[in-house]
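Handoff note, outgoing to incoming analyst
You'll be picking up this chain. Sequence as last confirmed:
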Amino acid sequence: MGFGFKGVGYIIGAMKTRSFRLTEIESAALKQAEQQTKRPSELRRMQAVRLYGSGTDTAQISDITGMSERSMQRMAACFREQGIAGLHDQRRGGNRSLLTEAARREIANKLHTLSPGRPAPQPARILDGERPHGGSGAVVWGGVQGRG
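Most recent structure output, in case you need it:
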């Protein structure tokens, strides 16, 4: 069965229609948000959504943003549901503190006080000769060297 196109493989119905379109107001709001954000990841998402919503070819958007077509679709859905707030970085990061500020202060206080029953550290020796009246010789405190 042929369609009169010899040597050219056309797939009928392969063109996808994009239902996501931005209004002029939404596009302007995204442009403004792009200029205000300081986070590269958010800028990339906003650019991808704006370009995707304006009908730009997904291959071009991918070249510009490095984002897959599926990611563009996800970001567009987030924008539809939550607006620009849906494009902000939601990750909490791995280095976030799991301790409250009060717990942090308590630990710091414990680290700065001596353990009960433990004697105060005494200088083990004075390096560079004896300095009987608080001279500037290096002092070793329990194995840790400091200036005395």
